[in-house]
Amino acid sequence: MKLNAMLAEFHAFEGKWDWQRPLHVRLEFADAPPIRIGLMGDGGSMRVDFLPLEGPLDIGEYGAILIRDVSEGFAPGLKGADVDLYGIAAGETPFAGVGIVHEGRAALCFWNWGDELLWGSWDARFLCDWGGAAPRLM
Asked: Does the pTM of the predicted model rise above 0.85?
């Protein structure tokens, strides 16, 4: 699949937003339907669906939901590239995340840590304690 864009949805409060913890990420492809990656409401499960992002949205005193195009800034070299998507399993967790594979290597990963959606390189997932269960692509 050819990745056209990667959009991320963030919570902003008092003008500040944490780019390391998106609420959802939407991957748009030239030759496949777009997908949205996020967390389930249980705080422990991942979700991949075909829904649009929910923002931008002003939520008054609680801040705002912003949408940012992170195609170039966060994942340089992936925009316009041919990629494959794989699930990430860890120990007893059959679906702990999503890996974007480009040129035979995991170029960018999304995973659930507690009740937060985290993202980073394949090596960055080792910053989390998986309880001795090494995450793997499936």
From this structure: yes
Neighbours of 96 (CB within 10 A): 26
Take residue 78 and report the two structure tokens written for it: 């992936």
In the block, tokens 């699949």 appear at 1
Per-residue pLDDT of the chain (138 residues; tens, 9 = 90+): 999 999 999 999 988 888 888 999 999 999 999 999 998 877 677 899 999 998 899 999 999 999 999 988 877 889 999 999 998 887 777 777 898 999 988 889 888 877 888 888 877 766 666 666 777 777
CB 138 within 8 A of CB 101: no
Q: Across-strand partners of 16?
A: 13
CA distance 136 to 122: 10
- The answer for residues whose C-beta is within 8 angstroms of residue 22's C-beta and 6 or more apart is 8, 9, 10, 117, 119
Amino acid at 8: A
